[in-house]
Here is the input.
Amino acid sequence: MNGRAEQLKGKDEKAVGKATGSDETQARGTVHEARGKAREKVADVRAEVKKAVDEPGEKVAEMKDKVQKSLDDARETISEIKGEVQRGMDEAGQKIAEMKGGVQKWLDHPKEKRPPSGRAQPRRPSRRPPP
Here is the structure.
């Protein structure tokens, strides 16, 4: 029996005890009414405790979901960056291979037929005496 029903039972018993003049029935009614009130209070406390326990649990679950989403986003971003870095390294490797091929061609030419290296020729010292 729940608290509210027991309170009503107690009130009825008290009324019957008053009507019949039975102190014992009246006392039993008072006990039932008090027990019903106590059960109702216990139920209220249980509900509050459950709410207090469940509410943080829900917040923790929400936070866990947010953290998981952030981790997933970070992993995706890292993956994209890795792809960009790999493409850059591939391009750099191709350019290095092209440069290496050009240097090898230049080295394979006989010295007398080599194209100019692009370096400036050293300056000849002036024949005039310094002032």
Residues 71 and 77 are 10 Å apart (CA to CA).
